[in-house]
Amino acid sequence: MRMSKTFVKTLRDAPKDETARSAQFLIRAGYVHKEMAGVYDFLPLGLKVLENIKNIIRDELSKIDCEELQLTALQNPEPWQKSGRWDENEVDIWFKTELSSGGELGLAPTHEEPITNLMKTYIKSYKDLPVYAYQFQTKFRNELRAKSGIMRTREFLMKDLYSFSADEAEHAEFYHKVEGAYAKIYDRCGLGKDTYETFASGGIFSKFSHEYQTILPVGEDTIYYNSDKSIVLNEEVVVPEVLEEFGVKKEDLESTRAAEVGNIFTIKYKYSEPLGLDFADKDGSKKTVFMGCYGIGVSRVMGVIAEKYADDKGLIWPEEVAPFKYYLVGIGEEGQKTAEEIYAKNPDKILFDDRDARPGEKFADAELIGIPYRVVVSDKTLADGKAELTVRATGETKLVDIDKLDLAR
Amino acid sequence: MRMSKTFVKTLRDAPKDETARSAQFLIRAGYVHKEMAGVYDFLPLGLKVLENIKNIIRDELSKIDCEELQLTALQNPEPWQKSGRWDENEVDIWFKTELSSGGELGLAPTHEEPITNLMKTYIKSYKDLPVYAYQFQTKFRNELRAKSGIMRTREFLMKDLYSFSADEAEHAEFYHKVEGAYAKIYDRCGLGKDTYETFASGGIFSKFSHEYQTILPVGEDTIYYNSDKSIVLNEEVVVPEVLEEFGVKKEDLESTRAAEVGNIFTIKYKYSEPLGLDFADKDGSKKTVFMGCYGIGVSRVMGVIAEKYADDKGLIWPEEVAPFKYYLVGIGEEGQKTAEEIYAKNPDKILFDDRDARPGEKFADAELIGIPYRVVVSDKTLADGKAELTVRATGETKLVDIDKLDLAR
Asked: What values do phi and psi take at A40, rounded to 5?
């Protein structure tokens, strides 16, 4: 992409009400635009980061045989009434609206009810199981307070996966596969090292669920862990019964702030039973489908990555989520000509700062935008047949032979 | 994709209230699932068709320098109040909702106001123009009646492009480029031959807008055309003044039913003026940005293609929008073994019917699902080193050398 061709420009200031550092940088660098509290547009660079995260998730979920579909935002109350979650005393973050032809509708905050209902068309027999279906869908949650930039919003992109199994054993096997896929997803998103699968409250149907928590000073949650981090607990389960079960004492645990980046949940018959999702088993008996659900907030993950890796100069994207791998600047007549040639070879990998601006301004924007590698070709470096390569994360710079420079990788 | 691995199955019946033939087939073949009137889920095959149409649009728009972004569904009333379109007497298809922290919100039925507002951050000077930005976004329209399957729905996927130009001449040049891009898009979607750019009402700001209308017996619109179709008019502009302008008489025009598959619209200052989207021109004077908007209903285009090409056996997808290019069936022991080998080479291009089912059932599903080419390898065809290739659209069948069968293309 040519910087001279995009409408987006880096901004000197972020909105005054934006307190999260990641949100300030994401706005100033031109990744997102704030519509109102908790509601953000994704500009071209931001959309590329979202797509990269989606592609990582899609790739890992396809390896464990998940199928992608897309449900709707508008919700018929009926299935939600059956599960009891239409009631605003049960679910307090509904946005509701009305059909002009009469009748109330909701905007989906999650999709257990509609997908359970949908599967009644397709699951009739043990031969139809298991089913693993997921989507990337905009969720709407009427949060009383929206803060932390794109880490907690009223409209956000979520990957939600649902599993439908014949029994608990079949479910457990898939649940374990999802754990493996999630580990790979957070690794590829650059969050692997500081992301832990934690024990969290399981609600009334399971003892525990699991959350994925990334250590982050501004995170909304607190997690507790033992010395080798083999036991990591969400704050809400640090109670005497649970500590006893894990054989640890509270005083032996350390705590830190963290941000939830995903969850996996055994939901058993919570929705399949009231909605009547049954199947005929081998012996002809009628059984209820055993369910699980598995979420990753895609835009939230983007916010957590932004928050985690920023420094005082701007964003720092891990390679696989970065909108472009290289930020290219040409200085001087020959430098600019050579930069044009380099760009022409790999335009999809390169954010080419071909603007009519001072090198210092371009370097500052390169740091704010946070592309992993900056490549500078100037008349001076070219005199020795070299280009300058700078790693955004470390600031490390070296001269490389221009003939050996390969920006295809 | 293996048929044995997907949860979706073809269905014997469509919902009784579903009158459009395309909707019946799309549901029975497993492309979509009806949530309620005018609200449809997209199942794996349906999502693939949508993605293929999106990719065609994306490809053609990138060639005319358009940038992709993504705005939000939730709408702050403020910019809409400025343009006068918050008022339900002006726009009668709003879904509105409320923030739990207080205040009304809307669900975007279109995005002129928020994108005009957004551009106030980025357009300040003549140097910042022109800007061409588009998105694929879910639109919400509170239609009193929803019918025609996915051709007219309350929640649908739309491509909406907005242009921001310094003056009418710059706008006209881009408008013409969009006409070229749209022609290519409808061609690639298989609708080129029967799709016409029509003159439609321009509203209060322009004499005419243009619509793209595909001739379709169940279409909602009526278009009028002269003998060589050099003049094609929407019904609403077939009035004495317009007929006089084009130098034709009503009795010389023929009429037909058609479905709108897109529109392009010169909106001049309709939103930029009330929202204050100005720029400093070369001479320092303040001018208002000149705008255009250009829509294509992506899910509607899918519905029109489905409707247009179906026969009494099922759907018939044009190659570039089809979810898979080949439908593969193996018959007999050797036939099945060879089919597995063929599938393994190009799994992304092939819908492999590896189910434990009778060939007749597979052939019927192949016709219902409407994949362009059916490939059958049986012990009998293999005895002569052949496979049977059938074109879905024509029913034409021929035997081809198995060694020369290349399903990569």
From this structure: -125, 140
- Identify the domain boundary among B309, B334, B356: B309
CB pairs under 8 A between A and B: 136
SS3 content of chain A, % helix, strand, coil (to 5): 35, 30, 35
Distances (CA, A) of A389 to A348, A369, A384, A408, B16: 18, 16, 14, 15, 65
Q: Quick check: helix, strand or coil at residue A235?
A: helix
Q: What residues in B contact A96, CB-CB < 8 Å?
A: 97
- A232 lies in the same domain as A358: no
Residue A382 lies in a domain: yes
A298: pLDDT strictly greater than 90: yes
pLDDT at B205 over 70: no
Closest by Cα among A35, A56, A28, A31 to A46: A31
How far does the CA of residue B156 sit from the closest CA of chain A (Å)? 9
Shared-domain flag, residues B235 and B343? no
Among candidates A166, A396, A197, A404, which has minimal Cα distance to A296?
Answer: A197
Chain B closest-CA separation from residue A152 CA (Å): 15
Task: Give chain A positions within 8 Å (CB) of B75.
Answer: 35
Is the C-alpha dihedral spanning B144, B149, B154, B158 positive or negative?
negative
For B106-118, what is each residue's pLDDT tens digit?
Answer: 999 999 999 999 9
pLDDT at A147 > cutoff 80: no
Q: 3-class DSSP state for residue A371?
A: coil
d(CA B123, CA B106): 26
Does residue A181 share a domain with residue A52? yes
Average pLDDT over residues A38-55: 97
pTM: 0.97
CB atoms within 10 A of CB A364: 15
Q: How many CB atoms lie within 10 A of CB A206?
A: 14
Helix (H, G, I), strand (E, B) or coil at A252: helix
Identify the pLDDT of residue B165.
Answer: 98
Site from B4, B5, B33 to mutate, A interface, most A CB atoms within 10 angstroms: B33
Give yes or no: residues A169 and A194 share one domain.
Answer: yes
**The domain that contains A400 carries what CATH number?**
3.40.50.800
Q: What is the C-alpha separation between A213 and A222, in angstroms, rounded?
A: 9
Q: What is the DSSP letter of A15?
A: -
Nearest to B73 by CA among B39, B35, B105, B121: B105
Computed on alpha carbons and rounded to an integer, the radius of gyration of chain B in Å comes to 24
Closest alpha carbon within chain A to B49: A69
Q: Are B303 and B332 contained in the same domain?
A: no
- Residues of chain A found within 8 Å of residue B107, distances taken between Cβ atoms: 97, 107
Q: Among A320, A325, A332, A304, which residue's Cα sits nearest to residue A370?
A: A325
Cβ contacts (< 8 Å) between A64 and chain B: which residues? Answer: none
pLDDT attached to residue A205: 62
Cβ–Cβ of B105/A95 closer than 8 Å?
A: yes
Residue B153 one-letter amino acid: T
How many Å lie between the alpha carbon of B175 and the closest alpha carbon of chain A? 18
Are B322 and B31 within 8 A, CB to CB?
no
Given pLDDT bands bounded at 50, 70 and 90, which one contains residue B38?
A: very high
Give the angle B246-B249-B253 at the CA atoms, nearest 5°. 95
CATH number at residue B45: 3.30.930.10
Q: What does the pLDDT look like over A315-354, one tens digit per residue?
A: 999 999 999 999 999 999 999 999 999 999 999 999 999 9
Contacts of B394 (CB under 8 A, 6+ apart): none
Over residues A107-143, the pLDDT tens digits come to 999 999 999 999 999 999 999 999 999 999 999 999 9
ipTM surpassing 0.90: yes
